[in-house]
Amino acid sequence: MGISGFADLPLHTGHVPPWLYSRMVKLSGLIVELLINEHGIRETIRLFSNPIFFQAFNNIIGMDWDSSGSTTITTAALKESLAKEDVGIKVVGGKGVYALN
Fold it and tell me: What is the pTM of this model?
């Protein structure tokens, strides 16, 4: 028998502070580089496809666990950090019009 349920998460307004976002970019890049070195590209991609892992990663780099926009902000931070390095993975997406770049 599986476990099921739901979570009622509030929609937050505002933005991630720039000082926090810059730290999220740096930390996410370092963690992904470590994951690739330890587990390879294929396993790293598999890990990020797991929503529980993605949420945990989101929390580790500094987002609140119940913050709205956590997926878009985390994706944007990953995209920005990995654009600076050639680690074999590129990220698309992000938040709003910035997702188009």
Answer: 0.82
